[in-house]
């Protein structure tokens, strides 16, 4: 029983980790309608920034989020402005997806060039210490990630629902042409949203860096799982991504124990395929809005 | 003396000197560019030092050796470069290759051309597993690594813990590419042969970000000896998550890769203390068992102005020395003469700079090739097994 509870706790904590990566991904997809394959590399860049800042200035890695999240915002905004926006008028929208795949490969190889293939270790500053909840062991860092993921989801929901900018973002997502007629600058909204999505993963990277060794390829695994979470939760749904991540975290941990560590990915991706076949809109998804297709 | 005779004399002496420098050509096929370039170059340095040493001592069969480099940047280019070395450069044999997949590709070309191919560094079973006539391998393999870990349990760990080896509960975990899978397969097979109780063998992708379920599984099964064949990320993850789950096996034996690197030790700190590792011979080893190692280090420093970046150069040096001296002891450079010469090589253990002997047995694999058992002690990776090669005591139990 103790083992079972421990696995469930591990699964939930893992889910929190996936969630904080998935939220930004689903935000970008939901609004800009671009699948950002470079999202994992944004995480990797954020983790290296956290590593450099926290070792260079000898500060707690969490504090570096104040610099890393804005830096990632800029990276995301530039990606939208310089890479995606010029391609928005392209006849075939898949070009944008290929562009993010290219960006992903470029960033990964750039990191290999700059940092080498060796891992970089962000000092833990105590976040690897354990707390006991009854018989269950959890790292304080994992709890912080979990809490931050919840706050991020709530914060984003409030922002989207309550602020003028948030409403403008949603309006643009719902009907780009109508939003433009209402005087909304859709290009600016896309840049803002892409930056925001990247800033979310920037915040996540400062929280994740002290828990995992950073390497140029760290993003690839995270982003694959994050896709599954986003699809499970319903493409574009922020709370959906969060709950999708918790489900995937639990499935991952339980199948890793009861079925075998070599098959856990097979289980996760089988679920992914089943959702696509049986309920393509996901748990929280609504019907896809394709109004952006019209100019 | 007229100007004409002077010119003729100069031309003739230049020709003679040139000929003496390029008497017999050997190909050196390594990845010199691309992702594997660092350790490819490091491997090549070993061959270069061996050739320098042999040429300084008069060459082989009275002739100086000239190395012709080929860049095996990927599998296709490995094939192309092997063809070029053989047909255009007319090399008598090829030495290489560091990467197993490139070795497998290029040696196929050499085999068809009937040119001997000496593999000095690639570990995959298939390199020698194809029964090629002209392929020889001097370095230890995935099988050597698997057997060595099991032998270490039998010879040191069980006696050190004061229990029968068959009473130990052993868990084998490995990253699931060809490397980890084949080492784990040999561990399982050889362990069963020796009557060990291996309760689980589990693979995982080396890019994984969570091993907590695997750790809990091992803990649940009462595993007290863990064998992990891994890269860097997964070594760190396993050690960290084991500590976090309160899983404390009596011994952890890593297989090369992540466990030999200082960066891994820096990542996990004190958790690395006492962890064991089986890998190619490194430099903290008893030099009585590895004669020539100190000279190698001096020669390396003189030529390249730095310390070796890994053990690859040493192992390639040892392989190249054995093969080239073997050829030197033979007669002629025709393929069959070279094959006959290297088949006669018979160097016992403890007489090369890497410690292992050289003798080509079944499938032209060096059946005396071995790895070393090492242990992290006080933040340093020191050789502890076999005892002849050890520089420190094997620390196990209390």
TrEMBL record, chain A:
Its main location: membrane. It is found in: Cell membrane. One of its GO terms (molecular function) is transmembrane transporter activity. Keywords: Amino-acid transport, Cell membrane, Membrane, Transmembrane, Transmembrane helix, Transport. GO terms for biological process: amino acid transport. One of its GO terms (cellular component) is plasma membrane. It comes from the Bacteria. Pfam families: BPD_transp_2 (PF02653). The chain crosses the membrane at residues 12-32, 39-56, 62-83, 95-116, 136-160, 188-212, 218-235, 266-285. It is a multi-pass membrane protein. Coiled coil: none annotated. Belongs to the binding-protein-dependent transport system permease family. LivHM subfamily. This is Branched-chain amino acid ABC transporter, permease protein. It comes from Salipiger bermudensis (strain DSM 26914 / JCM 13377 / KCTC 12554 / HTCC2601) (Pelagibaca bermudensis).
């Amino acid at each position: 029983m103790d083992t079972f509870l421990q696995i469930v706790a591990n699964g939930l904590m893992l889910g929190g980790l996936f969630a904080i990566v998935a939220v930004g991904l689903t935000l970008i997809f939901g609004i800009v309608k671009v699948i950002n394959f470079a999202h994992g590399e944004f995480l990797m860049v954020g983790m290296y920034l956290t590593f450099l800042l926290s070792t260079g200035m000898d500060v707690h890695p969490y504090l570096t989020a104040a610099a890393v999240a804005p830096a990632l915002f800029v990276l995301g905004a530039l990606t939208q402005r310089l890479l995606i926006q010029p391609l928005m008028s392209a006849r075939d929208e898949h070009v944008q997806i290929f562009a993010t795949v290219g960006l992903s490969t470029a960033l990964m190889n750039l990191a290999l060039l700059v940092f080498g293939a060796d891992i970089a270790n962000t000092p833990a500053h105590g976040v690897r210490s354990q707390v006991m909840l009854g018989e269950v062991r959890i790292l304080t860092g994992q709890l912080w990630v979990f809490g931050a993921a919840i706050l991020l989801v709530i914060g984003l929901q409030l922002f989207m629902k309550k602020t003028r900018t948030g409403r403008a973002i949603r309006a643009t997502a719902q009907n780009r042409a109508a939003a433009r007629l209402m005087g909304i600058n859709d290009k600016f909204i896309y840049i803002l949203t892409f930056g925001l999505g990247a800033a979310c993963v920037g915040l996540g990277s400062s929280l994740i860096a002290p828990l995992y060794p950073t390497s140029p390829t760290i993003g690839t695994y995270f982003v694959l799982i994050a896709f599954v979470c986003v699809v499970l939760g319903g493409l574009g749904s922020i709370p959906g991504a969060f709950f999708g991540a918790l489900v995937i975290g639990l499935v991952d941990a339980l199948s890793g124990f009861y079925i075998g560590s070599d098959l856990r990915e097979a289980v996760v991706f089988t679920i992914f395929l089943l959702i696509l076949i049986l309920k393509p809109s996901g748990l929280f998804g609504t019907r896809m809005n394709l109004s952006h297709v019209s100019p | 003396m007229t100007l004409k005779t002077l010119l003729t004399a100069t031309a003739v002496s230049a020709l003679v000197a040139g000929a003496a420098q390029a008497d017999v050509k050997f190909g050196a096929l390594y990845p010199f560019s691309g992702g594997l370039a660092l350790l490819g170059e490091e491997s090549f340095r070993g061959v270069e030092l061996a050739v320098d040493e042999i040429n300084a001592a008069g060459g082989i069969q009275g002739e100086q050796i000239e190395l012709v480099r080929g860049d095996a940047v990927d599998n296709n280019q490995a094939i192309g470069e092997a063809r070029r070395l053989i047909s255009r450069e007319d090399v008598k044999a090829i030495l290489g290759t560091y990467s197993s997949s490139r070795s497998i590709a290029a040696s196929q070309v050499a085999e068809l051309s009937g040119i001997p191919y000496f593999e000095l560094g690639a570990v995959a079973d298939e390199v020698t597993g194809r029964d090629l006539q002209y392929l020889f391998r001097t370095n230890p393999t995935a099988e050597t690594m698997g057997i060595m870990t099991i032998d270490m349990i039998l010879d040191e760990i069980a006696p050190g813990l004061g229990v029968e080896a068959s009473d130990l509960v052993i868990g084998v975990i490995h990253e699931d590419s060809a490397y980890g899978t084949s080492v784990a397969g040999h561990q399982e097979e050889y362990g069963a042969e020796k009557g060990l109780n291996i309760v689980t063998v589990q693979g995982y992708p080396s890019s994984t970000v969570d091993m907590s379920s695997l750790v809990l599984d091992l803990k649940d099964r009462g595993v007290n000896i863990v064998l992990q064949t891994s890269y860097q990320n997964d070594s760190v993850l396993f050690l960290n998550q084991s500590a976090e789950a309160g899983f404390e096996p009596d011994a952890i034996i890593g297989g090369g890769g992540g466990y030999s690197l200082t960066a891994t030790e820096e990542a996990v700190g004190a958790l690395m203390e006492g962890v064991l590792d089986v890998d190619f011979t490194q430099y903290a080893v008893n030099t009585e068992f590895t004669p020539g190692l100190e000279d190698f280090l001096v020669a390396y420093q003189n030529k390249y102005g730095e310390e070796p970046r890994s053990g690859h150069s040493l192992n390639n040096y040892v392989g190249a020395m054995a093969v080239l001296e073997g050829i030197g002891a033979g007669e002629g450079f025709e393929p069959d003469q070279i094959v006959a010469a290297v088949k006669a090589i018979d160097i016992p253990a403890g007489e090369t700079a890497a410690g292992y002997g050289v003798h080509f047995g079944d499938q032209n694999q060096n059946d005396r090739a071995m790895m070393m058992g090492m242990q992290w002690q006080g933040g340093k990776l020191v050789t502890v097994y076999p005892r002849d090669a050890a520089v420190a005591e094997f620390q196990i139990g209390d």
